[in-house]
Prior knowledge:
Blueprint: H1 9-34, H2 45-99, H3 106-126, E1 130-131, E2 134-135, E3 137-138, E4 154-159, E5 165-174, E6 185-189, E7 191-192, H4 193-196, E8 198-200, E9 215-216, H5 223-227, H6 249-295, H7 299-324, H8 326-333
Parallel strand pairs: 3-7
Antiparallel strand pairs: 1-2, 4-5, 5-6, 8-9
Amino acid sequence: MSLNLSTNLAANRAGLDLSKASDALRNSLNKLSSGKRIVNSYDDPGGMSVAYKLNSRLRRTEAVRHNVQNGISFLQVQDGVLSSAGNIVSRISELRTMAQDVTKNTSDIENYSKEFLELQRQLSQMYREKFNGVSLFSKSSASAISPPSSPVYNKGSEIDENGNTLTKFSRTIYTHDSGQIDDGSVSIGAINFEDVFNLGALDNRYLENFSGDSSNLANPDGLNAVNYPTEAGIFTNDGFLSSILFVSMGQFTSVIERIADARAENGAEQSRLNMVDELLATNMTNLEAAHGRIMDVDVALESTKFARLNVMVQASASMVAQANQLSSIALTLLGR
């Protein structure tokens, strides 16, 4: 190779090697400092694309899991109200048992009816219970609601074991990150208070002028007051039964059975949502692992690479310095 002053080919090549080694060292340092194998999109375009989609699905799955957990909370609050309502009806049936005691006079029965009236009013207030502003219960005359103005509110009907048509309400929880109902969904019930606390015909042994064929113990939204405004002496002004004798023990037993059925349905829905939550947690763990296999840096491998590149940078820098000294040989030949 010729020796000249204007072009130092060895120094240029050593400088290029130094630049490449320095870039590789910086990239390795970025990976170790960030903990990511793919710091820039050009590091692994295909891997970055897959990891991006996995991460997006992971975040959606986490959001779905939050929705499922909120659904479980909704059902737990609903079950708590049903439990209290069951205690109230059990107490009312106890009062009815005591009221039919032959040793009780009219004043005693009137006192039992006073508590009966207050307990009916408490049941009516329970009907209005909500979870985060969303109604826990409904009644037959309610209409279906569609989003986005309000939460999804489905309305349907079914035939019970006695051949009666019952109006059913539910809300749908989407349990898959695709947001498609066919890929995964669970319906949680909005218990129909009107059906659960329906008494049917009152006890005609103590009534002479009741023309209705059905009344409601909970009286949701003044149901009795609307249906029977003229039944003097049977209902109070706000639509509640005035005497405990108007309802037979068999009617109270039927209401208690329907409350038990509603709680059993609630428990079944909670069990299913708990299983869904477990599945989502497992999916999140696996998705996170898949994302990590693509994106996370192998510290042992990368630290070894970093040490090698660090040596190469130092060696390249030394060689650049040596190559830059070649010009001084030319100066020596010129007699300097």
